[in-house]
Every structure is written in structure tokens, then in C-alpha cells.
Amino acid sequence: MRYLGVRYIIALIIVLVTLWLVLSGYFNKPLLLWLGSASVIFTIILTIRMRIIDNESVPYFNLFRMVPYLVWLVVEIWKSTIIISATILRPDMVLTPRLIRVKTLPSSGFGRALFANSITLTPGTVSIDLDDDEVIVHTLLKEMTNRGDFAEMARRCAIAAGEKEPAF
Amino acid sequence: MIEWGVWLDLARHGLAGAMMLAGACFMLIGSIGVLRLPDFYARIHAAGITDTLATIFLLGGMVVESGLTQTSAKLALVGMLLFLTSPTATHAVANAAHKAGLKPRLGTIAPPHPRDREDG
Hints:
A: about 60% helix; B: 4 helices; about 0% strand
């Protein structure tokens, strides 16, 4: 358990140093580099003191699983944006809004937050409430209430959050 | 001898321009949707288009335009920030409306044709 904490602290240091260097862009000003090191050390001490170092505050070990998921998500966003845009631009548009309950598959907090945020990011579906194992979703068109699509997204979220591949 | 650098730059600027134009188009479509859709919950969906795909296209175009510089790294960071925060904000607004008891209009809705509106 202590080993895990050290792993998260090292990852956080690397990320914070990279962030400072990218945002400042000065590699040859000693004063700025000193200020940067001081801020990073101060932040690390604060996070350790507040005991918030865990998989949720340092989610970078999921990165390799997250990248394929994000690519898939952008493709989904593209597809539903085309449908919604076509609906909006039709002069005689017909809307079929529904409220549906969708089962969440991921069990960790990170996975459930990822699932709800993915639903909201996809145009045409917005998550408006979360229960223990269900999300209430408002959909603009009845074509978007397909259970299979939500199940597919939930499965991919569970994998991206680092949970074991669920049985389907 | 063909100067490849010039052609590469030309292609880069063309791609950047096309992406930013697409982003601007989606922004416009989202705004039209916010004006046309009948109901609070439906309007959130139109605002979602400007949040997601339009932002991806606009920031992507800017990243391509500025090339491999510090500026594009900063733009990518801005994009990541927006990608994380905008669904949270949308969910907060929708959840607040739901908790406050605003009922969505459900069923089949056909908003009036633009030509039939009195205020044009």
C-alpha cells in the first residue's frame, strides 16, 4: 500500500513539472525554474498532508486505456452531431424527446463519472440524474434511446476505467 | 527541385483553415438550435454541439495552424480542460433544473415552420 502511494507521488511530480515547463516555456531563467520547483514541492506537500493522493486525484495510470476510449468517443460525438445538426436545420423539424433510465455497468466512482460525462458529451443525450446503478438520461430523438448503444458505451467505460472486462 | 517545405506549409494552412471553418459552422448550427428548440432540456442538446465538436474543430485547427510550438501545447491543454469541464457544467445545469422540478416536454413535438411564425 505504501509502495502504491510512492508511485502516485512520483507520477504527480512528473506531471506537475511538465505542466510548469509547458506553460512557462523558459528553460534558461534560474529564478523561474526555482519558483517552479518551489511550487511543485509545495503542492506535493499539501496533497500528502491532505491525504488525497489516490487513483482519483492522480488518474494518469489509466492513460493508455483512456486514449483508445477517447478516440472511439470522438467518433461517436461526430456521428450524433451530424444527426442533431440535420434535425436542427430542417425547417419542419420533429422532435421525440424521451426520459429513459440506463443501467450503469462501471462500479468505481471514476468509471461511473466517465460514463455519465460521456453520455452528456454526446449531443442528443444528457444525463440529468445519477442513482447507485442507474442514470436518468434525456434524449432528443427516439433513435438515440437504443439500449445496445448505451450498453456498449458502459462496457467501454468500464474497460477504460481499468475494471475487469465485465461478462455480457 | 521541388521545395517540399512550401507545399507542406500550404497544406497545413489549408487544413487549419478548413477545420476552423467547420468549427465555426457547428457553432452557428448550435446557436440556431438554441434559438429554435422549444424547451429547456432540448436546448441543452444544441448547446452541447458548440461544447464538443465545434470546440474540437476550432482548437484542432488552431493547433495545426501554430505547428509544433509551445502555443499548440497550451491550446491542447485548453482543449483537455474544456473536454473535462463542459459536460460537468451541462450536467450541473440539467440536474439543477430536474431537482427544481422543471418537467421536460416529452412525446412528439413539431415546432412551427419558420415561415409560419409571426415574428419571422
